[in-house]
Design brief:
Residues 134-175, 247-330 form a coiled coil. The protein contains five helices and no strands. The protein is mainly α.
Length: 356
Amino acid sequence: MSWLLKQAEDILNRVDQQTNAALHQHTSELPKKQNQIEFISDTPSFTPTKSLDQPIISTNRPTIIIPTRRTKKTDETDLINYLNSSTPINNNEIKQLIPVQSSSNNKTRTNSCSSSNLNDNSSLVISTNESYINNSNKQLIDTLQNEIQTLKHDKNQYENELHTYKRQLIQYQHQIAESDALLRDLHSRESDSNEILSTKDSQVALLRIRLTESDELLQKKILQYDELHNEYTHLIQDSSHIQSASFDALQLRKIQLEQELERNLNENERLNNENEQLIEQLKLIEKRLNDEHLQFYEQQQQTKHAKNLINQLEYEMNEYKSKAQRILQTKDKLIIKLKDIIQHQNSTSNIGDQHG
């Protein structure tokens, strides 16, 4: 794009130089003609010496003296300066220089031509210059229109890419919003699971305390049972002739103690089962909490990746915006220059019509 802009600027500069040179040549020829006419009107009695090459002119018309050496010198110096310049020489510019050189040679040969012939030659030179300028302007306008079409195509392409990036940005924003909602949900679940875990820990601690208390109570009961059983055996051994009533009472007491022991054993077994169930529930909760932690970490990584992608897309979108703005600025500049060229072409055509 920068190369195309440089080429367009070079073309515009060349066209400006050519139009300025043509206008300068046209304006410099007009005062020369006026000075020649004034010089002729001031010196009507001057008659030059006749040479062999000069045609015989009637004495009724005043003769015209043209400073041939000066014009020839200026044309030669202009040609030398143009050839020594660093600008590349086009075939059209060489064709433009050749008529100027030939016109200067014709001026040196036709020193005694009439004012009507000089006006015809000047109008011919002006018409050729105008036709060349018109052709060059048309070519420049065609090239500029082609470049404007390419710039419009590039602009449309960049706008389409910008719309696609905007849609991607909206999609990533929706994904980030969903991931944020999921993160909030995971945070709430984590807090709930932590509360449940704390309550379960407190329940497990209470159950452990109860279990220790029941174990202590069971040990006491076992000791009491052993003592009573020992006492019973001693009583049986020592007093075999004890009354049946006391024996029945001791037997009943033994049965009661055995039943109470069985109840305590059942209670202890039930507490052990509850403790195992609570331990399994605690393990499951810990496993689920670890899984949720892993999901939370994965969601954090996904959100970081999505944010990095969004930053990259924003940077690329800013670059495409700056490129589109530069393209629009160059388009506006080219349109303004094209309008100036068209106005200048119209003004030069109006000047040519006035002189014609």
